[in-house]
Specification:
Elements: H1 2-16, H2 21-37, H3 43-47, H4 65-78, H5 94-103, H6 107-122, H7 124-128, H8 137-148, H9 153-171, H10 186-189
Helix pairs in contact: 1-5, 1-9, 2-6, 4-5, 4-8, 4-9, 5-9, 6-9, 8-9
Length: about 200
């Protein structure tokens, strides 16, 4: 599991690579300013979610309760397994796996991502009148697609990262492999040491 977390962390870092820390923080500050500007208009009330009262399991180190709920909802939205042979995401600790991936990242990147998770969840209030965690499946899927395909680099990067983390948090669990007849990484079976991301041969 540790190797999978480290590999996933490298992929997350590469996704964020085009977005400098300064540019990310600038985008986040503008978004925060926009939120603050409409607090008097009821943003705080709209931001409240019934899911805030749901208990959060023990064992999380890097995800706070709101981020835990974000990834639980993302897993349900992005991995609709009902009616298929695929393992239900409800049986997989997706958020805990994401937490493990975050643990393999640098502290500064974790801080940036935490800010991005909050923006992703709360920005839905502007367009849908409620947070992402409260959106029904079809609206939530469209919302994720809007972020992943956004013109703005910051918004697109956040969308790609949250989507990638949710998918990886699911598929890195061995219980998801049998339905697709995957028997595990050959590097593990053959005892090949990981060398990180290597360029393809010419």
């Amino acid at each position: 599991m540790k190797k999978e977390s480290q590999q996933a962390a490298r992929e997350v870092t590469s996704t964020l690579a085009p977005l400098s820390r300064r540019r990310f923080l600038t985008s986040a500050l503008w978004a925060t300013a926009g939120v603050s500007a409409i607090v008097a208009g009821g943003f705080t009330l709209l931001r409240h979610s019934p899911r805030d009262a749901e208990p959060v399991p023990a064992g999380l180190v890097h995800l706070d309760p709101s981020h835990y709920r974000l990834f639980q909802h993302l897993a349900t939205v992005l991995l609709p397994t009902a009616g298929t042979m695929l393992t239900s995401p409800e049986l997989i600790p997706v958020a805990h796996n994401v937490d493990a991936i975050l643990g393999a990242l640098d502290v500064d990147i974790r801080k940036q991502l935490a800010m991005g998770f909050g923006l992703f969840d709360n920005a839905a209030v502007f367009t849908h009148g409620k947070r992402f965690v409260d959106l029904p499946a079809a609206e939530a899927q469209a919302y994720v697609n809007d972020w992943v395909n956004a013109d703005g680099l910051a918004r697109r990067s956040i969308g790609l990262v949250v989507s990638k983390l949710a998918h990886t948090g699911y598929w890195m669990d061995a219980r998801t492999w049998p339905p697709i007849e995957f028997d595990g990484p050959v590097s593990r079976k053959w005892g090949i040491a990981s060398r990180g991301n290597q360029p393809l041969p010419v």
